[in-house]
């Protein structure tokens, strides 16, 4: 296992990305505290992103609007624009890759670059060049914080350290050279180490590991035991500067979820949103050239969650998936307690590749399935031609706030088709 002797990775994190994109696009928001919310200015929701100015006042993501207004009565509240953020992400990656090859895109606002033989000698100069390219060609209100280190994991931790500097949030840079380690790392709180969430911290506390220093001094085999798998040992080697990367995970499910606006919180209203999400998941399934054998539905009420799994033949056409959803909805109608539904999710799972699907000799409706697959392909081709949903099975109506199926998650950047 190789242990680099120089800085080899540059980790880049956009500062308050959603809010900073809003500031770049809307001059009235610039240099003002900004909070981004899912559906508009309503006291019943929370902030999904905040600007640098808001963070310096102590306002954080996931804070309620009411609490944010208590801290700053003048905070500017704006509704999210996911397609705008997707396009801003594409513009950013184009500018960054014009300076330095991108190694891995971790999320819509985080990515990692591997430094070449020239850049490793002056990572600070390369970081400045990247920042200048973004500022000059996209705009100065979208700022980047960066961390440079021997491997990607340490670079990400260095980036976190650089977020706050001299009392200012964002636009920072931390360079952790191998010869300076582990000093900078040991100054970090254990909760700031990627891969150590609340549950894992409890496991570490039970093993008498309370600090980053004690974690660093721990034996790698003990870390494997605490984690219950090889990831603990991988983390040990990453923290000690070895060039080790986690194995790429395979996609195991495709789905969408949605917080429901008030007018869709009935069983019938939530069904309309669920149908839309199921079709969008089916479209992603076909773009990945996959078939699914399971449909998972969950509905969240005030004090309870309802979950249900429907089994299917290996399918990827809209008709078959919507039939499975209808079966699930009949079960929901019989089992769900009376009351509003606040959130729902639809997920396809149990995948097989298209070229691995075999016809079932005992299935008597194969001709019907082939017909619906052909119909769905024709629908996809028409929608692709016009760049929007011009034809669908049943009514196609976005709920209030729009962007159903275009949600930006931590692990996935939506495609343009997700916004149709």
Model description:
Monomer. Residues 9-197 form the UmuC domain. It comes from Hohaiivirga grylli. This protein has 420 residues and is an alpha+beta fold. The chain folds into 3 domains: 9-173, MutS, DNA mismatch repair protein, domain I; 182-248, 5' to 3' exonuclease, C-terminal subdomain (DNA polymerase, domain 1, Orthogonal Bundle); 254-419, 2-Layer Sandwich (Dna Ligase, domain 1), CATH 3.30.1490.100. The chain contains 14 helices and 14 strands. It has helices at 17-25, 52-56, 65-71, 82-97, 123-137, 152-162, 183-186, 198-206, 212-216, 220-227, 230-239, 267-287, 318-335, 366-386; strands spanning 9-14, 34-37, 49-50, 76-79, 102-107, 110-114, 144-149, 164-165, 168-169, 173-175, 253-259, 290-300, 305-315, 343-353. The strands form 4 sheets. Strands 5-6-1-7-10 form a 5-stranded mixed β-sheet. It has a 4-stranded antiparallel β-sheet with strand order 11-14-12-13, with helices on one face. A hairpin with a 2-residue loop joins β5 and β6. α10 packs across α11 (230-239) and α12 runs antiparallel to α13. The longest helix is centred in the middle third of the chain and has 21 residues, at 267-287. It is globular and about 65 Å long. It starts with 8 loop residues before the first strand and ends in a 34-residue tail after the last helix. The mean pLDDT is 91.
**Terminus-to-terminus distance:** 46 Å
| Spans of at least 5 consecutive residues with low confidence | none
Name the shape in a single word: globular
Q: Can you write the helix and strand succession as a string?
A: EHEEHHEHEEHEHEEEHHHHHEHEEHEH
Measured on Cα atoms, how large is the radius of gyration?
24 Å
Question: Can you name the CATH architecture of the largest domain?
Answer: 2-Layer Sandwich
How many strand units?
Answer: 14
What's the CATH topology name of the largest domain? Dna Ligase, domain 1
As for the number of domains, it is 3
What share of residues is helical?
A: 25-40%
The CATH class of the largest domain turns out to be: Alpha Beta
Report the average pLDDT across residues.
Answer: 91
The largest sheet, given as strand count, sense and whether it forms a barrel, is: 5 strands, mixed
Describe the strand arrangement of the main beta sheet, using strand numbers.
5-6-1-7-10
Tally the helices: what do you get? 14
SS-based structural class?
alpha+beta
